[in-house]
Amino acid sequence: MALEKHDKDKENSGGGRPVAEKGEHIVARHLIEDDNIKEEKNLVIDGVDVSGRWNTFIISRVDSDFDRSFFEEIKKTVAGSRINRCWQCGMCTASCTVTPLYRRFNPRAFIYMMQLGNLKELKKYIDVAWRCVGCYKCSQRCPKQVNPAEMMEALALVIKKYFPEEVKTKLKLDEEVKKIYEDMIIGHGRLDLAKLHTSAMQKSGRTKELLGKIERDTIFKMAKDGRAFSILRLGKPHNWSRSKEAIENYLRKLNTIENGEAGV
Amino acid sequence: MDKLKENQAAYYPGCALLTIDRAYNNSSKLVSKKMGIELVEIPDYNCCGIGEMKSKGAASMYMPLRNMMLAKNRLGSKNLVMACSVCYHEFSRSIARVKENQNELSAVNEIFKEAGEFNEEFIPDGEARHILEFLYNEKGVEEVKKNVVKPLKGLKVAPYYGCLYSRPSMYTFTDKKPKMDNSERPRFMHEFLEALGAETVFYGNEVQCCGGRNVVQDEETSFALCSQTISKAKKAGADVIALICPKCAGALDVNQPKIVEKFGKDSELPIVYLTQLMALAFGFSKKEAEFGDMISEPLKVLNEKGF
To answer: Would you call B138 an interface residue with chain A, using a CB distance cutoff of 8 Å?
Structure first.
């Protein structure tokens, strides 16, 4: 996936503007559509003329279709168990590693949408929702210990459950790589990095690159100093099949959205 | 298996360190031994989950905690030392979570019971220790200074901690006893490097992310982040970047030819592990420290500087 260009991003974010020069990547944006904002030219409230000063208002609206079951669903998961604590301060977005690269990636807004159960809004961000690099800056700085980094895992689960079609198209590679990881970790108990790399390249249709100079040099180097063969000797833990069965059983029995696809 | 002696510590190698990052594994062992602690690998280890299991509920905690059980059961050690920051994160996360949350602890114990490998229940009374803070706290900077036979005079090093060594403190408790590093501005690596006689440079990206987690699915993010880190370090005058995490090595070292191809020569700088530099200063040869394993060719600059 190519990094988003600033211009293109501007279009998508509904006229987002940088808050300040220093925090150039922090984009002021609201969840309110432009149509819902009303600017009054001459306005008198309770006998006070507020023209030209406090003249911008949101047209009053009733958001009644909050789906509380959705909130509970997330709260039940391990990753999203602290969603109720978030008070929307935005520290997560301000400290985010990914936001400067993908300006539409906004953890605070994602958590807000999850709190409200606003699937319609969430759907617009599916393409960037899985870009979290898991650096945990947000969780470190969150004043309420919401753990936004893991909230993004919960977000992935939500998207997987409610938008399976989009996952198959927009997040195909992410989904496939995750599957490779999970199969390897649960299935074998250990991680074969070489196999991970080659199968991921294969899945993304870049097998040809493996024959390119850079990849070839690396593979040749690792074969020469014997590291490539140590991967073959990695093996499995003894009796891993018992652990594997227990994990698979646990995942099958789960009655939360974590059960979506048990990776088995 | 015999229980541990006083100068031994239970050690979790992890998948990367046993295979392509053997340089880190071997040099960690060399350095620890020289400083008076022998690292004993736990037998039969399994993968920690490397952050890809977090959406799987308690299963993500079973993965690392099984290793804690092994350490206690086979080696009689409550604590477990590891060199990989990702493993360290997964272990501290699981321990911190089950300590706080009784439901999650019983869910993990349920899996343990079903697997039937151990006769006892898991009790979260141990700790995960990162090799950097472990050596710092157990042996200290003085012990490093004492062992230096070949000071790294004139070598400018950019210390790179990455994300998960110090963050998040809700899991790693970096600011608290017994670790006592700073979770926003860690300093142990700085102190170690200075004890070796090397010069550390300030470049501002010490605790930035390398994008290593998405390096397979989303190369471009990782390349952009790595290129920023490397070029900043280079601009600050660093000869090498010192790492303490194999995932950072995957992003900064193994992928460096691709990053250079995309972002130009500014993003070219040799990458080494901290423990490799320590081994070198402790009198081990460059071959023993396995500098040749790194893709970014630190040997060139080390030879130039006459080490």
So the answer is: no
Helix axes B59-75, B85-100, angle to 10 degrees: 100
Q: Calculate how close chain A gets to B225, using CA atoms only, in Å.
A: 9
pTM of the entire predicted model = 0.91
CB A184 within 8 A of CB A191: yes
The DSSP output letter for B2 is: P
Q: Where are the domains of chain A?
A: 6-28+64-163, 31-61, 172-259
Statement to judge: residues B115 and B178 lie in one domain:
no
Per-residue pLDDT tens digits for B173-232: 999 989 999 999 999 999 999 999 999 999 999 999 999 988 888 899 999 999 999 999
Last residue of a domain, one of B67, B100, B130: B130
pLDDT in tens, B51-85: 999 989 999 999 999 999 999 999 999 999 999 99
- Domain finish residue from B99, B130, B161: B130
CATH class of the domain comprising A6-28+64-163? mainly alpha
* Chain A contact present for B97, CB below 8 A: yes
Report the run of H or E that residue B287 belongs to, with start and end: none
Report CA A181 to chain centroid distance, whole Å: 17
Beta strands per DSSP E along A88-202: none
Q: Residues B198, B51: one domain? A: no
- Which residues from chain A sit within 8 angstroms of residue B164, using beta carbons? 135-136
Q: Which residue of B has its CA nearest to A171?
A: B217
Q: How confident is the model at residue A24 (pLDDT cuts 50, 70, 90)?
A: low
ipTM higher than threshold 0.95: no
